[in-house]
Amino acid sequence: MSYRPSPRADEHTPLINGDSAASAQPGRDAQRQRKTGLRAFLLDTVHTPGTDSESFAVRSAAHVWHATKATLLSNYVNVLLVTVPIGIIAGAFNWNSTAVFTINFFAIIPLAAVLSFATEAIADKLGDALGGLLNATFGNAVEMIVSIIALKDGQIEVVQSSMLGSILSNLLLVMGMCFLFGGLVHRGVNGGGTEQSFSGAVAQTTCSLMALSSASLVIPATLYAVLSQNGSEDKNSSILILSRGTAIILLLLYVMYLVFQLRTHSNLFRPKAQQDQQASQSDQEANIGRVSATMEAQPEEEADIGPVAATIVLVVVTVLVAICADYLVGSIDDIVEKANISKAFIGLVLIPIVGNAAEHVTAVVVALRDKMDLAMGVAIGSSIQIALGVTPFLVIVGWIIGQPMSLHFETFQTVSFAVSVLVVTYTVQDGKSNYLEGAMLLGLYIIIAVAFYATPSDAFDGHLPQLLGKSS
């Protein structure tokens, strides 16, 4: 039988020195602490070492790095930020129009996410009322910047299509995906299926506002058709007068909607679960639209970059969005000629994806967690902002800069919008949703998108030349 000697005891042997193995190797603990500190310095978006230093230089540098780090790590789509300088270079050096459009298209997506992050950081410090107003202003900032640049460039069809596309993408695509994936996850058992629920009062209120915005497009289209049949020579100026008057009324109604949601009836906009459990809950959940849902969907311990840093980020990102959007819009004409697709399809499908990608993903994630009130806030709330706020605002901007932007959309666009609002109203009126309703909304969106894709590039240009240069 062989004999195997035991290891020789020395000064590092535990128990002999009355210490543990871990404490016998202090270098390992120090190395672990250094790794933890390095990880916090690079990846921790809540706290950065050095922000509480007594040295002003160290403290300032730490705050700058913290703001940069928190902004870059705020959303997974920020990996696309590398396309921002490439897109600017592509536009400045007149690369191929397809390359300029594609690169700047992907560049605006992360900029939109950063813009939303900075807006939330500022809104957190202002309280519900002012924070909600800020969210309403900057919630659709990307679409507004792109549209203003396109409007200044005379791309009225692109502006109208992008506004309609933003509304339809939120009403049909986003809400459809929320209903579909949320319904599949929470479908229950075979023979005993369940539905997800949300506040029916909120759905009815917002759908009524969407029906009003639909009427604001149907009436100018109908008046234009009647004046055309009668051979009126002043039909273009009549449409512009009607559109500008309607735009002012819609903006006033939007302001009333903000007061209704944020102040007088904020209790109606609380999540349904809180209405059932806590009748006296404060109106903290009564923020506007998709930005509120994004804030509540995030973890409890969120990144905080402070209002000053957030304002700087907001200004820088807005400038970058304007530059990328300028190059993007400038390449549209060449894209239309080379790819033989309509401007309506670019505005209806592609541009809304740019501005809403991050919020779309957030809405689906929230729906998977069975928080349908938040998902509805993303979908319908954002649509209300576009229909009652951004679109009338662009009509007023066109009036100021001498561009004949009107609420007279092409007939097919108007009908598509009216049908979509009708289907959505019937879908959400009971305050419940399931995956079949989601599939129906997605199906309608795909049908409309295919219809615009199949439309020749010059099919919707007929009424625009008659309006150009005839603003009153």
TrEMBL record:
Topology in membrane: Multi-pass membrane protein
GO molecular function: calcium:proton antiporter activity
Main location group: membrane
Subcellular location field: Endomembrane system; Vacuole membrane
Domain named Sodium/calcium exchanger membrane region: residues: 97-262, 310-453
Domain of life: Eukaryota
Database matches in Pfam families: Na_Ca_ex
TM regions (residue ranges): 76-93, 99-118, 130-151, 163-185, 206-227, 239-260, 308-332, 344-368, 375-401, 407-428, 435-454
Keywords on record: Antiport, Calcium, Calcium transport, Ion transport, Membrane, Transmembrane, Transmembrane helix, Transport, Vacuole
GO cellular component terms given for this protein: endomembrane system; fungal-type vacuole membrane
GO biological process, one term: intracellular calcium ion homeostasis
UniProt region (Disordered), positions on chain: 1-30
PANTHER family from the UniProt entry: VACUOLAR CALCIUM ION TRANSPORTER
Family: Belongs to the Ca(2+):cation antiporter (CaCA) (TC 2.A.19) family.
Functional summary from the UniProt entry: Has a role in promoting intracellular calcium ion sequestration via the exchange of calcium ions for hydrogen ions across the vacuolar membrane. Involved also in manganese ion homeostasis via its uptake into the vacuole.
Record's protein name: Vacuolar calcium ion transporter
